[in-house]
Every structure is written in structure tokens, then in C-alpha cells.
Amino acid sequence: MSEAVEGAITAVTVYPDRARVTRRGQVKLAAGEQKVVFGPLPLGLLRDSVRISGEGPATVLGVDVITRRLARPASANRAELEARLREIEDLISDIDIANEVAETREKHLNRAAVRSSELPEGFDSQLAEVKTGVARRNRQRADLADEVSAVKRQIDDLNYQNQPDDLLAEVTLEAHEDSEVAFELSYVTTGASWHSTYDLRLAGEQLTLNWYGMVSQFTGEDWPECDLKLSTARPSGSVEVPELDPWFIDRFRPMPPPPPLQPMAYGAAMEVADGAPQAPGATMMRAAPAPKPKLREAVAVAEQGPAAATYTPSRPVAVRSDGTTHRTVVAKLTLEAQLDHITAPVRSEEATLRATVRNSTAHTLPPAMASLFHEGDFVGSTQVEAWAPDEERELALGVDDRVRVERELVKRSASKATLGSARRIDAEYLITVTNHSPRPIRLTVLDQLPVSRDGQITVKETIAEPAPVERSELGVATWKTPLDPGAKTKIKWGYRVESAKGVELAGWRD
After folding, report:
1. Residues 387 and 364: beta-carbon distance below 8 Å
2. Which CATH number does the domain housing residue 116 bear?
3. 445 by DSSP, 3-state: which?
4. CA distance linking residue 246 with residue 241, whole number of Å
């Protein structure tokens, strides 16, 4: 087989789970039909993805992906090493047996000396002979153990030399004349991927979204600095906004008695603000110096396709085939955000700062983890779902301890069922929210009624002051109100649950 033409990697398009690689180069052809071999190619190559094009007076007659068998170490060398390993292991076994015999002989000599009033004749020389033999064999055993390790290392080296066979692209060409042809070979390979991460930085009511592409690959070939593109196409302790699940109550149904025990078989069981706020009443004595320009991040050029987008980083990026992750800036977006505080004191007596943001860009943002920053403070991390243009997303920006929330049980009464009457439970709560922050806020409060699953259990709202602005079919009530600095709001909220005689409630909570 003729020597393979490698060609330089000049372009790579990375998809979420694979990559398309393009190689370019020159090859000299003699007039007539001939085969030119390109490679080696990565072992994760998708064979039906190989394409070749170029410029020159020649015609491509066919493209095949073939395997080049690499030379293997001589099998006799391996056999000799394995035979020597077995021989050494047998010698070590013989030494161990001889030492066991010597240990038994030493015990017999010691017992004979104990039984006799005098040491037997030649006792010292016999005991010294035994101990000297054991010491000599132990030294031999240590040398043999070192040789075992050396032989095993040689066998391992032979295993490492057994590299997989190469994949090559064999192209059949017909050259119309003696010439030099410029070729472009492209193929798709597995073992490469990219994913997104975000920095979400909120200042005032403006959200800056920095979008990064994280590229890694272990295809077996290093990518030099080349035309790298990231495509969203697919050829193939977090912060949360509080939400309430439905609260169901039902008739109590006793569990049936357990069946008798049977024998069991074994085994069955976001960025810092530009400057600090000026103190109230401070007077500007002289003109402030011109602000220094901020460092800017170069962003990728976007190409929007009918079903996916491709992003080209502003500079070439080299990616080694070692799984190392390389970060590149995809985009920097500025979005308007609406801020409010939301609390569900029935779940937790704390208020969460929430940002409601609309994607006003043309980018569809892939799902990814995001780091959240607010007014210079790192808030935490959250998962951002796939975000299409013009869609809204709610982002939790952490608990605001300056907004204090209390939910107090102010009334609870329960009556026992009598003849012809129902059992009744009344509960009333007082929710108090105080704004201790220096700014006015928009507040959303959530609470809920239990939801009956039985016709003999009824739930009735007894008090709601002020009235909620929204009520859901599953019992969730919503209040919305502005709250100035230092101001507080109070909500009275109560309900009654009645159950027929003989019906015991399940799922009730205070």
C-alpha cells in the first residue's frame, strides 16, 4: 500500500455529540486511473460520512474506507516471556515448600531439646544449618519476585504496542494529465462534543447573559488552531422559585392487616457593580475623572439556519484530544428583567427575589447550568431550560433576608361529630410581610386551601382579607401588592373543613 496522504486539519464543526472535520492538502497525480490513500483517520469515524472534493484535472471514481493492519510484536517473544514467568512462579513455590519443611524441622529440634536434660549432640550446628538455609532461600525468593515484576512489565509493554489498526480513505481517481490536485476531505467522528454554560448578571432591571461554549474531544487526533464552529444541530444545589403542590385531603382508610409472613428465599429481601452608591447628601466638589474603559469579550459570529444555529468564535481555537475542556465566548446578550419578591410562607417563611426575563434576541439558548450574580453578589447556580426567542423565564436570585415573612396560626378549632352532624375543623392564619430594604418592592404571596378527594369531605374558605387576585382550581391563592421601604402588609386567611360522621381525615396538616 502506498504511503497515506495526511492533509492538514483546517476546519472543524462541533455538534453536541460529534464533529465534522475538514482536511486540505495537495497531491501529485500521474495521468490515468490510480488510488490515493488519505489518513490515518480517527477510529470513531462514521464511515458513510466521508466526502472528498477539490480542484484539478481529475475525476473522483469512488471513495472507500479501508483498514490498514499494523505490525504486531512477534508472538514468540510473548510466549518466551510467559514461559519464563511460569518458571519463576514454580521456583518461588519450591522455595516456599522448602521453607515450610525447614520450619517443621526447627520445631522438632526445639521439642527434642525441651524433652532432654541436655542439648542433643550437634543441636547447635543443625539449628544453624536450618536457619541459614531459610535466610538463603528468602534472598533467592526476593530476587525472583523482582524478576516476576520485570517480566510482567515487559508483557504489559507488548500489550501497549498492540495499537488498533488505522482507518484510511482510499480514493480512486482518474487524472486527465500529469498534475497537482488540491483536495478537501471531510468526515464526521464521534468522541467530540460541546455544551453551554451561562453567567447571568443582574444590575438594576437589566440582565446581562454571557454565553460560553465548552468544547472537548478525545477523537484520537489533535485539532490545531483552525476554523472552529459550534453548531446546535443534532445529526444524530440550586436556587428555585417557590411553588406549591396541590394539598389533598381524603377519607382515612385503615390499612388492611398484613398477610402472614412466608419463608423468604435467600437474597429476596452574576458581575460586581461599577461603583459604590454615593452617600445621601454627598456633594460633588469637583468633576469626576472619566471612567476607564472596561475589558470587552469578543463574541462569536452567528449564522441562523432553519432548524439550528452555527457559531464561529472570533479567533481560531486549538483543541487537544485529551478530554480537556476549552471555553470560548459564544454571545453576550442584554435582556430586560422585571423584579419582584415571591413568598410561600406555608412552605417556608422567607422571600425569594425573582427576575422575569423575556428572550428578546434571535438566539435559541440551549439548556445549561448558569451562575447567578446580583448587584455584585454571587447568588448561586441554577438550571436554565431551553429558551426560545420571545419566551419568558423566571430566575430565582436567592433569599432576601431584608424582607421578613411570618405565618401565624391565630385560630384553630375542631368539633367532634355528633348524631346527624359532621366533624368540623376551622383554621385561620395571619401572614405578615415587612420590607426592611431601602427600596420599594413588588410582592407576591402564595397560600393554599386543601383539596378534597372525597364527596363527604368539604372545604370552604372562611376569610381572605384582602381578597386574592388569583385562585387556582387546585386551591392556590395569590396576592400581589407593592411594598414601600419600612412598610408591612397583613393577610388574613382561613378555611373550614367538614367531614361526615365516621369519616377520618388523611393528609391534614396545620
Report:
1. yes
2. 1.10.287
3. strand
4. 16
Q: What single string gives the DSSP state of each residue in 87-152? A: HHHHHHHHHHHHHHHHHHHHHHHHHHHHHSSSPPTTHHHHHHHHHHHHHHHHHHHHHHHHHHHHHH
Are residues 137 and 25 located together in one domain of the fold?
A: no
Same domain, yes or no: 155 and 178: no
Q: CB–CB of 193/323 below 8 Å?
A: no
Residue 203 in domain: no
> 109: left (phi > 0), else alpha (psi -120 to 50), else beta?
alpha
**DSSP structural state of residue 155:** H
Kindly report the pTM of this predicted structure: 0.61
Tell whether 97 and 130 lie within a shared domain: yes
134 located within any domain: yes
Tell me whether strands 248-251 and 223-231 are parallel, antiparallel or unpaired.
unpaired
The answer to whether residue 300 is domain-embedded is no
451 residue type, one letter:
V
Same domain? For 65 and 168 the reply is yes
pLDDT (tens digit, 9 = 90+) per residue, 375-420? Answer: 778 888 889 999 999 999 998 888 999 999 999 999 999 887 655 6
| CB neighbour list of residue 279: distance below 8 Å, 6 or more residues apart | none
Nearest C-alpha neighbor of 494 from the set 322, 346, 338: 346
Cell of 247: 394539598
Q: How confident is the model at residue 91 (pLDDT cuts 50, 70, 90)?
A: very high
- Same domain, residue pair 157 and 171: no
| Residue ranges making up the domain that contains 180 | 8-12+19-70+164-189
Residue type, 244: L
Fill in the amino acid letter for 91: L
Quote the CA–CA distance of 35 and 1 in Å, as a whole number. 10
Q: Give 184-230 pLDDT, tens digit per residue.
A: 999 999 999 999 999 999 888 889 999 999 999 999 899 999 899 99
Helical packing angle, 123-161 and 75-115, nearest 10°: 160
Number of compact structural domains in the chain: 3
Cell of 129: 544449618
Give me the DSSP letters along 35-78: EEEEEEE-TTB-GGG-EEEEESSEEEEEEEEEEEPPP---HHHH
134 & 84 share domain:
yes
Between CA 371 and CA 212 the distance in angstroms is 12
C-alpha 211/C-alpha 313 separation (Å) is 12
Q: Is 241 a domain residue?
A: no
CB atoms within 10 A of CB 244: 17
Listed residue (426, 427, 475, 466) closest to 447, CA to CA:
475
Q: What is d(CA 243, CA 240) in angstroms, rounded to the nearest whole number?
A: 9
Are residues 82 and 54 both part of a single domain?
A: no
Query: Do 115 and 43 lie in a common domain?
Result: no
List the Cα angle 110/113/119 in 5-degree steps.
Answer: 130
Q: CA-to-CA distance for 266 and 25, rounded, in angstroms?
A: 67
